[in-house]
């Protein structure tokens, strides 16, 4: 016998045996199911699911109990669907509708029958529509149990069927401020300081929120921002100290919580303090602490830092008195800063 023919015959037999061992999906079996099978939604949102039926013949009545996690879901309404009404008038009843069936679950128990005699409904359609509102993030199962379907015979027969549960995935919503940083810790009164805020969307959904910058308890700037899930952004703000009294100020940032956000502790972050004082007063008896006067210690300090930039290891942004600003983004201690020091030489706090 031809070897090639034998090999092809053997291969065909193996393929046929393999397919015969695979599970066969049942066809035309009456199925009672939650529709859609998976609902993905944010916390504190309202949504609807259907209790539907497929491939049924002569349906004259139905009954089901639906169990759900009461820590994640709140059931708010149930109403009859249109399917059974295609066969005539119906009597719809809700036997139980509670979030507190027990400590962990709510239960919805509903039933419906055709009124009078006559053939039942055939095919596929919606038996009931249920409205829920989500609570915390997590995954909840909508479990169908103790279901019953009957036909229009007298006495009625129970219709054999299978059930398919539903799943509700409640997404995590979480905006977090990771860092608040200022370009300087000492700024001369009337000069600007830059504020950088790093924010990340730790949740699973795109969110739009408002970010506000505070100096002590006073709002100085805000910005509406949209962040996809997992994304990070650094927002830049400028505080012009003109008109502000000299003193020590605390800088903080606050992201307004979005709907459904449960972890709000990370929505606010303090970024340290800024001293507003006499321009060019950078030194005093304590290193890094101004003493209320621009004197020779400060002039010497500016000379020591002259022509330094952020790339220098001894760079001090406080010494870049005149910048960086939107108009003068210099990032260098130069003659503008020396000149400002000379201009304010021997000036003191009132």
List keywords for this structure.
six-stranded mixed beta sheet; rod-shaped; five-stranded mixed beta sheet; single chain; 19 strands; disordered N terminus; 350 residues; mainly beta
Q: What is shown here, in short?
A:
Helix content is 11%, strand content 46%.
Radius of gyration: 36 Å
Biggest sheet character: 6 strands, mixed
Q: Overall 3D geometry?
A: rod-shaped
Order of helices and strands: HEEEEEEEEEEEEEEEEEEEHH
Contiguous runs where pLDDT drops below 50 for at least 5 residues: 1-26
Our measurement of the CA-to-CA distance between the termini, rounded to an integer number of angstroms, reads 114 Å
Write down how many β-strands occur, each being a DSSP E stretch of 2 or more residues. Answer: 19
**Overall pLDDT:** 87
Q: What's the helical proportion of residues?
A: 10-25%
- β-strand percent reads over 45%
**Protein structure class:** mainly beta
Strand order of the largest sheet: 2-11-9-4-7-6
Helical element count?
3
Task: Characterize the structure shown.
With 350 residues, the chain is mostly beta strands. It has helices at residues 3-21, 296-305, 335-343, and strands at residues 31-35, 38-41, 46-59, 61-69, 73-80, 90-98, 105-114, 121-134, 138-150, 162-164, 166-170, 175-182, 186-188, 192-201, 207-215, 218-227, 232-240, 247-255, 268-277. The chain has a six-stranded mixed beta sheet, with no helix packed on it. A hairpin with a 2-residue loop joins strand 15 and strand 16 (218-227). The protein starts with a helix and ends in a 7-residue tail after the last helix. The model is unreliable at 1-26 (pLDDT under 50).
